[in-house]
Amino acid sequence: MAGSHPYFNLPDFTHPSPPSTPPSLPWHQRCQPSDVTKGLLVALLGGGLPAGFVGPLSRMAYQASNLPSLELLICRCLFHLPIALLLKLRGDPLLGPPDIRGRACFHALLNVLSIGCAYSAVQVVPAGNAATVRKGSSTVCSAVLTLCLESQGLSGYDWCGLLGSILGLIIIVGPGLGTLQEGTTGLYTALGYVLAFLGGLALSLGLLVYRSLHFPSCLPTVAFLFGLVGLLGSVPGLFVLQTPVLPSDLLSWSCVGAVGILALVSFTCVSYAVTKAHPALVCAVLHSEVVVALILQYYMLYETVAPSDIMGAGVVLGSIAIITARNLSCEKEGKMEE
């Protein structure tokens, strides 16, 4: 028969052959973290944990040499100025493109106000409580502002973790707010909490402004502008409102250097994270700063940590776990290939 001849044994094109199975790839090549997962992990490890050291170290510098808050802010801004060399090497304008230069400077101003309020607050209230109020207000304001301005809502699991985290903050700071002393001491303590709240509000506004900036070298530009605007505002304010102090002990200089480096790392990581995940979720994950600050408050500053602080810290950690687990997803590379 003709069909038995080798030249007639051709493939049957009327019935397509089943697709070949691709070779098995290692797990790290088959599954890559999603953008939201990357943003939350960067916010947790690079933003919240280093920032938790900033408050206690700032308080140590103040206790060692009465270092004013504006002077500490100036020292921190100095660590941002060398970024100008990176921008010059890349040929980018130091102040950003002319059409969005105003928004970039406004973002820097909001961050300077936020940090200035935070540094002032930790000098009159415990570092853990100041971080608690600042992070709580930034989370609430970020959720409300993002919903109103960007119409970007949250899922039910995200709201559960967000509200749980805020509940943990209330448990931490609630007893302290209920026992404010009368007189000058109580007034300064209340003022410290107000400054911490305003610092959180300015932080949430700054995150939203940063999300609206889209141009090459955005992150190094806003980091340099933070240092520049901070110096221009803090140097005159230091001589008018406070008394400059030149630290003479090694402990103060070590704390100042550590604050500058850790704060720069945290600033960079938070700015990156907010472009990948919802600002309210980023702020909620940054509540890890409160837990770190409470631990350092007890072991480094030898300040009392109440049982409510421990309970609230546990609630915060549980809420962070809920938010992280809810958004912990992978992007299969195979779905992006045709």
Give the CA-CA distance, first to last residue.
42 Å
- Outline type: globular
Q: Total number of β-strand segments?
A: 2
**What would the average pLDDT be, to the nearest integer?**
78
Percent helix among the residues?
55-70%
Stretches where pLDDT is under 50 for at least 5 consecutive residues are: 332-338
Radius of gyration: 25 Å
What does this structure look like?
This is SLC35G6 isoform 1. It holds the Pfam family EamA. Residues 40-173, 191-324 form the EamA domain. It comes from Pongo abelii. The chain crosses the membrane at residues 39-57, 159-178, 190-210, 222-245, 251-273, 280-298, 310-328. This protein is mainly alpha-helical and 338 residues long. It has one domain (36-328). It is 70% helix and 2% strand. Strands 1-2 form a two-stranded antiparallel ribbon. α3 (69-78) packs across α5. The radius of gyration is 25 Å and the shape is globular.
List keywords for this structure.
338 residues, mainly alpha, two-stranded antiparallel sheet, 70% helix, globular, disordered C terminus, EmrE-like, transmembrane
Blueprint of the fold:
Layout: H1 27-30, E1 31-33, H2 35-65, H3 69-78, H4 83-90, H5 101-121, H6 127-149, H7 156-178, H8 184-211, H9 218-241, H10 250-273, H11 279-285, H12 288-299, H13 307-327, E2 330-332
Antiparallel strand pairs: 1-2
Subcellular location: Membrane
Pfam family, one: EamA
Keywords: Membrane, Repeat, Transmembrane, Transmembrane helix
What is the compact description of this entry?
By secondary structure, the chain is mainly alpha-helical. The protein is built from 13 helices and two strands, in the order αβααααααααααααβ. The longest helix is centred in the first third of the chain and has 31 residues, at 35-65.
